[in-house]
């Protein structure tokens, strides 16, 4: 662009979209074992009565869960569902964070003044849209994380097989199970994260405490997905 230095040119929507997805994938690679441990702890005792489940808990604590999985299923079990997890982050974070600016500009209709209402609408819109797009990958990721390799056969043999099996046995809608609560949750989370960031950034810029244009996707924090 004429009149802009290379460092002053704002990133395009495509750059934001790809940047948000790539950053989320890198974070997922690092934190995936923790996410797997979380899922195992959440579903523990699901098929047992409450008293029996408490007495025979296989996993105790985050580190205890990770160590137990490594010992009984091997280190690779910590990354069960990683492919679906990366697919989820690339589609989910790209929409949720990468399109926030573009949607905000749509709601403000090009106005220089951006109201809190417009920011909240943009945050809830991209949060809800991201879930609608990425829900099948989230379902497959959790199914993989939940299935144990030890003591029996595995229901899903690969990521593609998981998509096909769920669609065949539970119907196409089975890939979108849990969408409604997930939409509500992520619409709220997105508003809390991105709108808060946006307001703080504007306040800092007006107070001349920082300069430059920092796109919202740079505020992405691992562990909030």
What does this structure look like?
- With 225 residues, the chain is mainly α.
- The chain has a domain at 114-211.
- 64% of the residues lie in helices and 0% in strands.
- It has eight helices and no strands.
- The radius of gyration is 21 Å and the shape is elongated.
- The two termini are 35 Å apart.
- Its main location: membrane.
- Solcar repeats lie at residues 11-106, 114-203.
- It is a multi-pass membrane protein.
- Catalogue the unreliable spans: 50-55, 217-225
Order of H and E elements: HHHHHHHH
User: Strand content of the residues, in percent?
Assistant: under 5%
| Count of separate DSSP helical elements | 8
Structural class: mainly alpha
Q: What integer value in Å does the Rg equal? A: 21 Å
Largest sheet at a glance?
none
Q: Cα distance, first to last residue? A: 35 Å
**Whole-number mean pLDDT:** 83
Q: Would you summarize the structure shown here?
A:
One of its GO terms (cellular component) is membrane. Helices cover 64% and strands 0% of the residues. With 225 residues, the protein is mainly α.
Any chance you could write out the topology, listing elements then pairs?
Layout: H1 13-43, H2 50-55, H3 62-73, H4 82-96, H5 100-108, H6 116-146, H7 159-170, H8 179-206
Helix pairs in contact: 1-3, 1-4, 4-6, 5-6, 6-7, 6-8
Subcellular location: Membrane
Keywords: Membrane, Repeat, Transmembrane, Transmembrane helix, Transport
GO biological process, one term: transmembrane transport
């Amino acid at each position: 662009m004429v009149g802009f230095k290379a460092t002053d040119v704002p990133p395009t929507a495509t750059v934001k979209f790809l940047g948000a997805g790539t950053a989320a994938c890198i974070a997922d690679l690092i934190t995936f074992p923790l996410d797997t441990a979380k899922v195992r702890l959440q579903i523990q005792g699901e098929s047992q009565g409450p008293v029996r489940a408490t007495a025979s808990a296989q996993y105790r604590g985050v580190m205890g869960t990770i160590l137990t999985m490594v010992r009984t299923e091997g280190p690779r079990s910590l990354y069960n569902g990683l492919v679906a997890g990366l697919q989820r982050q690339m589609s989910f974070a790209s929409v949720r964070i990468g399109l926030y600016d573009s949607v905000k500009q749509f709601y403000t209709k090009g106005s220089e003044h951006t109201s809190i209402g417009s920011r909240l609408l943009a945050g809830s819109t991209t949060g809800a849209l991201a879930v609608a797009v990425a829900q099948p990958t989230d379902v497959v990721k959790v199914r993989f994380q939940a299935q144990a390799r030890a003591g029996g056969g595995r229901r899903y043999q690969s990521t593609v097989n998981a998509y096909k099996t769920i669609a065949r046995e539970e119907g196409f809608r089975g890939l979108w199970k849990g969408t409604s609560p997930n939409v509500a949750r992520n619409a709220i989370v997105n508003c809390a994260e991105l709108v808060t960031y946006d307001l703080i950034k504007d306040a800092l810029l007006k107070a001349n405490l920082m300069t430059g244009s920092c796109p919202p996707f740079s505020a992405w924090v691992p562990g909030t997905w």
